[in-house]
Design brief:
The protein contains 3 helices and no strands. By secondary structure, the chain is mainly alpha-helical. The longest helix has 42 residues. It is elongated.
Length: 83
């Protein structure tokens, strides 16, 4: 009699184990999705767009771009005063 119950019970336990693993995966994916949505919201803001444009060298209309070279050498020769 116990032999007849073995297969259905083992199938049930295996399915329950797989379901728990899938639920954990869903939780992890939802967390990652929320993180990515927050990152997307930050990067599509006007301030983030302006920062990125400045970083790659864009200037606003009417502004002048100055390229300063040799900053590290100047800093080596002129150490900052101690506070």
């Amino acid at each position: 009699m116990a032999f007849l119950y073995y297969r259905p019970i083992s199938g049930y336990l295996q399915t329950r184990s797989e379901l728990d693993a899938r639920r954990a995966q869903v939780v992890a994916l939802r967390t990652e999705k929320a993180r990515l949505e927050r990152r997307l919201a930050r990067t599509t803001s006007d301030a983030a767009l302006a920062r990125e444009a400045r970083r790659i060298g864009y200037v606003k209309p009417g502004e002048r771009l100055f390229i300063v070279k040799g900053i590290t050498a100047w800093q080596r020769n002129h150490p900052a005063p101690a506070p």
